[in-house]
Design a protein that fits this description.
The chain is of the alpha+beta class and 251 residues long. The chain has one domain: Kinesin. Strands 1, 2, 3, 6, 9 and 12 form a six-stranded antiparallel beta sheet that branches. Strands 4-5 form a two-stranded antiparallel ribbon. It has a two-stranded antiparallel sheet with strand order 7-8.
Length: 251
């Protein structure tokens, strides 16, 4: 059996993002950031892209199958409308959200994997910070300006692996085939976006899939990206391993 989730690969990174001292409140943690004392609020959301539909993995029972829409605004950038946000104050709080989301994620059995991911899953941790004790300032027009708030986002993305019907044992016309088709399609578009970025193309096709659209701010601009590849031990996946490493080297 092979089932690898955020619970096995993310705790150390999440710990770094939520590091704090003992002074905290129900909604804020005091932490050290760039050698300045700031007050931070951390907002956690967990969602999945299943068959090219965006769904909330932290939605109440019965509401998780509702399809969500992707929108864009000047203030928030690209965001998923209707996605529930949860304020977390510790690593345990983040991991609890992940565990809850994993319980609602789509998995299925194939010849390659007993617990095959049938969707791409995204954990976004938004950190809003400002200096403690910062006072409003007055601009040239004599109006008071609120202290600046720095907003950063950390995305953990668990991508479902590409599939071949011959290797997975998928039967034509079944739900498994439909899932595999959408998985391969979104990975293809992700590869096109990464290639366009690495080649400094003037047009980047972020809008071609929901995956690349949601991750637009994480793939371009001043963002930093790290990739970790996990493989099944079965020898039939050897070609897929090589293809995955070549794909990730582009980034």
């Amino acid at each position: 059996m092979l089932r690898v989730s955020y619970l096995e690969v993310s705790p150390r990174l999440i710990s770094s993002a939520t590091k704090s001292d003992v002074q905290n409140s129900p909604h804020f943690l005091v932490c050290s950031c760039d050698f300045r004392v700031v007050r931070c609020a951390r907002i956690c959301v967990v969602s999945q892209i299943y068959n090219e539909t965006e769904r909330d993995l932290l939605a109440p029972e019965g509401a998780g199958e509702q399809e969500l829409t992707i929108r864009e605004s000047k203030e928030r950038g690209v965001f998923v409308h209707g996605l529930r946000e949860h304020i977390v104050t510790s690593v345990a709080g983040v991991l609890a959200c992940i565990e809850r989301g994993e319980a609602h994620r789509h998995y299925g059995r194939t010849n390659m994997n007993d617990f095959s991911s049938r969707s791409h899953t995204i954990l976004r941790l938004t950190i809003e910070s400002k200096k403690i004790g910062a006072e409003p300032t007055t601009n040239s027009a004599g109006k008071k300006v609120a202290p600046k708030v720095r907003v950063s986002a950390l995305n953990f993305v668990d991508l479902a692996g590409s599939e071949r019907m011959r290797q997975t044992g998928t039967v034509a016309g079944t739900q498994r085939q439909k899932e595999g088709k959408f998985i391969n399609k979104s990975l293809l578009f992700l590869g096109k976006v990464i290639s366009s970025l690495s080649e400094n193309q003037p047009y980047i096709p972020f809008r071609d899939s929901k995956l690349t659209r949601i991750l637009q701010s994480s793939l371009g601009g001043n963002s930093l990206t790290a990739v970790r590849t996990l493989h099944a031990e079965r020898t039939a996946s050897h070609r897929n391993r090589i293809a995955s490493h070549r794909h990730h080297q582009k980034r």
